[in-house]
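Late entry, evening session. Most of the bench is empty. Finally got around to the prediction I had been postponing all week. Sequence below, unchanged from the version circulated by S.P.
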Amino acid sequence: MVDCFFLYVETEQTKRIMSKIQYLTQEGFDKLEAELKDLKSRGRKEIAEEISEARAKGDLSENAEYDAAKEAQGHLEDRITKLEDALANARVLDKKDLDLSKVRVLTTVTILNKKMGKEMKYTLVSPNEADFKAGKISVESPIGQALMGREIGESVEVEVPAGTLELEVKNIEID
């Protein structure tokens, strides 16, 4: 009999495989794909030029420009990895196939803030598509999490940095 054991080592690749699925609109998917393409081509080229220029200035041990360029390169590669991960785990949803009986990703929900007596309208999107100014909130935000799965007429209390909100779902639609 042969004794076997496996050593599990978490790598970037295994982290990507284990990442959760993100639901995106076709527009959101295309936007992330365009950003990734730009970073891999123009972004990497610019960083390489910055590193080359800094390297030409002499002693690297005391070269702040070289250090800054290398740090920028690290941030760029991190963003590329995150975009690749998001795209690899993305599922594009067609809005016409959404069930409007409950609040779900890509639905637009009208809510009433009971404390203020004010109605607000938000579209729930993936974290990569969130844009508060455009009325798009992440399903992972406190409000997004609290609203997911709720039906028209349901109320929910949400803890936010400013305190507790009591929200009532008034309408669910697709924009």
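Two things to note before I forget:
Helices lie at 12-17, 26-55, 64-88, 142-147.
Strands lie at 22-24, 90-92, 108-113, 118-125, 136-138, 155-160, 163-173.
Will write this up properly tomorrow.
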